[in-house]
Amino acid sequence: MDQERAILAFAALAQSTRLDVFRLLIEQEPHGLPAGEVARRLAVPHNTMSTHLAVLTRAGLIGAERQSRTIIYRAHLAAVSELASFLVQNCCAGRPEVCAPLLAELSPCCPPATTDSEPVHD
User: Fold this and answer.
1) 55 with 44: CB under 8 angstroms?
2) How far apart are the C-alpha atoms of 4 and 1, rounded to whole Å?
3) Which domains does the chain have, with CATH numbers?
4) Can you tell me whether residue 110 is helix, strand or coil?
5) What residues have CB less than 8 Å from 10, skipping those under 6 apart?
6) Percentages helix, strand, coil for the chain, rounded to the nearest 5?
7) Which helix (H) or strand (E) holds 72?
8) Which of 12, 26, 70, 88 supports an S-S bond with 59, CB 3.0-4.6 Å?
């Protein structure tokens, strides 16, 4: 990610409603939400929500997909990854022990799925 794209993304997120929209859409992955449902959940008028969704889309943080007559909005998780990587690309001057707490915070929120065939250790 280059600096201009990062600035565009941060500018889009630097407004409380857009930040709320983005966080809501991240919570709804991988299914996304229709625009009207996003507006309803955040108690934002539909026309205002349209503007916020357009800003987030231009910044590359979300995308829209038509499903019949409904437009479903989803967060672009790759954009989150790129943004986080942009922020820490020169982290800690090559000293991984300094970065360890930061990397732990950035680890996935969901543990990997396990299968029933994995052995159980007592």
Assistant:
1) no
2) 8
3) 3-78 (1.10.10.10)
4) coil
5) 83
6) 60, 10, 30
7) strand 70-75
8) 12
